[in-house]
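Renewal narrative, Specific Aim 1. Our central claim is that a sequence can be written position by position from structural information alone. The example that follows is taken directly from our test logs and has not been curated for this report. It begins with the structure tokens describing the chain, in the order in which they were read.
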């Protein structure tokens, strides 16, 4: 039981709270620093039918996030200062979550020419994280040059590790289930070979690389080895890869089609262990909304990707907290503090809950067991893999610089008449 007070967006000593302060009784809840997603797809500009910066911001606030890094695979691609500034400004205008645009590594995500990373870094969007996510930066010379370039302004290259040749036409994890279902396989080695190459390149250049959506036991081993070597490699796991396996593909339901694919039970175990022992640094959602026309179709024709912002807390609780592998304190580290540090937004987010710090906070109710219903979500897309499943808890109140951006109806009385 603990009390904190917030005045003008900052955490203050409760003794200094004004007498008429709004009081929130959050008994039974856990207070965490506002969550920071290093991997979100907001789809604006270009696919506003799937998500917009506004609907994605609302989904983020509902999920407990106060900051998201918006991936560059939009149309136009976020590969210039102009586009990243537009995304940043729109996020700021909506004001529900801080939107930090990720810049593309290569022009148009084509993998051929480096984008103007310096111009994006020095724009008002202050970009530090660069990724061609959706596709792998495949050419090792381009990757090397990108690592050298971002070093000059303390940036990070975020890699979608997928060997393009080994995964041509791939539909799901290559294993016994793909063989049975007759779907083309995406082998673990296609991920692992790129992870090891980029760890070596980061070590060689002395720069930072971050590996997205780690999905195989072998990739966890490689990251563990790279860290022991002293290479500046960080990695993320998604809530879906921590909970689901390739067995889901038996339903032929495209909601389970994702890149990289859901893998085996052993891989899920290795990801959980890797996260618990610090090999995997953070959890990132890879929230990938898709319009129904791209998901309500046969498996082979469907797009890769699943939504995640609104289910992350419950899914992480199920995989990591309720299993005894992590405490809520650890969750604050992997979902807020470290992602903020990797994205170099740790002067604003992922701060300690202490006097003088910005009040970016989330209340989590670990007893708020609920069945996931996509129809009640804020995201414009419905492609959650957890639909119809029970999750043990969720975010019930999110505060961005002291302002509530999402509040569970249980707090309606509390905040009555208070402008949000
Ligand atoms: N994860 C996915 O399956 N899809 C992502 C791209 C990506 O993260 O690689 C998307 O943009 O839809
Ligand atoms: Zn990706
Ligand atoms: Zn992604």
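The sequence written for that structure reads:
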């Amino acid at each position: 039981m603990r009390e904190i007070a917030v005045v003008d967006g900052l955490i203050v000593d409760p003794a200094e709270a004004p007498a008429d302060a709004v009081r929130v009784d959050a008994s039974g809840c856990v207070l965490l620093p506002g969550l920071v997603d290093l991997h979100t797809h907001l789809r604006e500009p270009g696919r506003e039918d799937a998500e917009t910066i506004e609907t994605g911001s609302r989904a983020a606030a509902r999920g407990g996030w106060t900051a998201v890094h918006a991936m560059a695979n939009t149309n136009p691609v976020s590969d210039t200062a102009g586009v990243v500034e537009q995304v940043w400004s729109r996020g700021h205008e909506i004001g529900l979550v801080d939107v930090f645009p990720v810049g593309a590594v290569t022009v148009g995500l084509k993998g051929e020419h480096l984008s103007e990373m310096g111009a994006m870094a020095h724009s008002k969007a202050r970009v530090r994280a660069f990724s061609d996510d959706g596709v792998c930066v495949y050419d090792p010379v381009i990757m090397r040059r990108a690592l050298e370039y971002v070093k000059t302004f303390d940036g990070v290259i975020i890699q979608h590790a997928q060997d393009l040749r080994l995964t041509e036409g791939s539909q799901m994890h290559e294993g016994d289930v793909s063989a049975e279902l007759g779907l083309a396989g995406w082998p673990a080695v296609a991920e692992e070979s790129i992870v090891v190459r980029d760890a070596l390149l980061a070590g060689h250049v002395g720069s930072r690389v971050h590996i997205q959506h780690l999905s195989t036991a072998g990739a966890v081993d490689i990251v563990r080895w790279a860290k022991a070597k002293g290479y500046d490699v960080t990695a993320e796991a998604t809530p879906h890869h921590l909970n689901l396996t390739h067995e889901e593909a038996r339903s032929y339901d495209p909601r389970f089609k994702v890149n990289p694919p859901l893998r085996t039970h052993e891989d899920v175990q290795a990801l959980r262990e890797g996260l618990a022992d610090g090999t995997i640094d953070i959890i990132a959602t890879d929230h990938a909304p898709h319009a129904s026309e791209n998901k309500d179709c046969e498996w082979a024709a469907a797009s890769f990707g699943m939504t995640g912002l609104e289910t992350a807390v419950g899914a992480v609780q199920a995989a990591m907290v309720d299993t005894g592998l992590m405490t809520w304190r650890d969750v604050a580290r992997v979902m807020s503090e470290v992602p903020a540090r990797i994205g170099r937004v740790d002067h604003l987010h992922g701060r300690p809950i202490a006097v003088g710090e910005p009040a970016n906070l989330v209340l989590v109710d670990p007893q708020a067991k609920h069945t996931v219903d996509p129809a009640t979500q804020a995201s414009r897309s419905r492609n959650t893999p957890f639909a119809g499943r029970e999750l043990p808890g969720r975010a019930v109140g999110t505060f961005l610089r002291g302002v509530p951006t999402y509040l569970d109806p249980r707090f309606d009385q509390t905040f009555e008449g208070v402008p949000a």
